[in-house]
Amino acid sequence: MTNSKVSSDLPDKPASDNDPLNKAASDSEPPDRPASTLNFKGRLRARLQLIGGALASIAAVGAVAGGLVGYWNVWKTVRTDVLPEKQKTQREAAARPDIAPRLSLVVLPFANLNNDPEQDYFADSITTDLTTDLAQMPGAFVIGRGTAFTYKNRQVDLKTLGKDLGIRWAVQGAVRRAGGQVRMNVSLADLSTGRDVWSDRFDGDRMNLAALQDHITARLARSLNVELIRAEGRRSEMDQSKNPDAMDFSMRGWAKVYEPPTKVTNSQAKGLFDSALRLDPDNIDAMLGKALSIAFDVIYGWSTSVVEDKKTATKLIDQVLAKRPRTANAHITKGHLLQYGDPEAALPEYDTALEIDPNSPVAYGLKGIALISAGRAREAFSPVQIALRLSPKDPSAGTWHFFLCHAHLHVHQYKEAVEECRRSINLNKLNWFPHADLISAYGATGQLEMAQQMLAELNAIRPDFSVQWFRQIGYARSSNPQFRREYDDIVDGLRKAGVREQ
Question: What's the pTM?
């Protein structure tokens, strides 16, 4: 399967004491962070679906990217009691961004050598799969896909990349597909020097992509002197699709999923997954993709039958988990469906996803907002900070900064709330949620002139905004008593700022 005409530049051997891979991050533990009924109304459903997507958009590729390099220097503490030991590397990386973790890396988007932009989805799919597989290496810290793809089709200075992302290694590659044959050139670069330490060529066919990627991942693991835990998610021969056209439709569907979310692109993704399932009803990647697309319909308010769509998506997810129990994205999608209305039930799904893939920024971010909705706002900071450390240039970073703003506001940390809300707004000026929280923070601290300036911006985005409307939306999101008490304080800040009641 492997062709070594492009020879390895670094032999497989144990690391020496001078090997940069042996330089460990600081083991010091950061201090803890300081300590803050309406029934569900059916008529709120449409509104909740409409706005829910803004809060949940971190599971899809959002609308804004870039501008976050070095953001984490403002964070001095990360809680350790809410994260299991398996996530120690991610926790330490968020607490000490000045120290690149020993096994920290990014998989840069593979180049498409077919000179056909229509074939980009194929190279992108391979990049995403390799990122997922490497993220499950013991002790690995892997930059998220969202940030990695901001470097697509760009000239990258490797030394600068390492400093900007706080990592040590980069995987690069190129893909050429000719009929049923696939050739991949892959290299591993040391970002401290900007030089390749290993490169190789891999040949295979479309039907054996998973096996081909296994060879690449295993070779990378050997070069990094780490034992590779087999990725159980995609690797079973029994659940691998035998229909290459179904695989192709599924890859195209996932390419649509990763585009900025719109009703049109989501419908196109579902159509592609349906085409895959018509050719191969047991295609697990297509099942999961369709379930996620249906979940987006529900969350973004595009669904014509919420109850039926949730049933369909849940059934698909259960089918996926029955065949691939250790599929992080399936648990994330299930948590996605539970997030609004039952955040307590969503939390175990995110925890399971992170047990499988400790490098999922999406799971960390969603866990943060679920903790707030579950009345545990003080625990929300750490997972959201880790999401930002894992993917600092992610298109969803604006939403994650809003989650931090919201957590600070829930515990009456108004100065910090203002800072994070402003970061969020700078990244996405059309997201009205941070505007509302910023107005409340200004109202609570008596900065009424600033509150009125921000209210004018909010009214331009959401002319229907009112105190009662905002209160009803929050109450529909969670019935947790602690959450509602804290949310009432946010509502009171809006009143003090002069927001109209009805």
Answer: 0.80
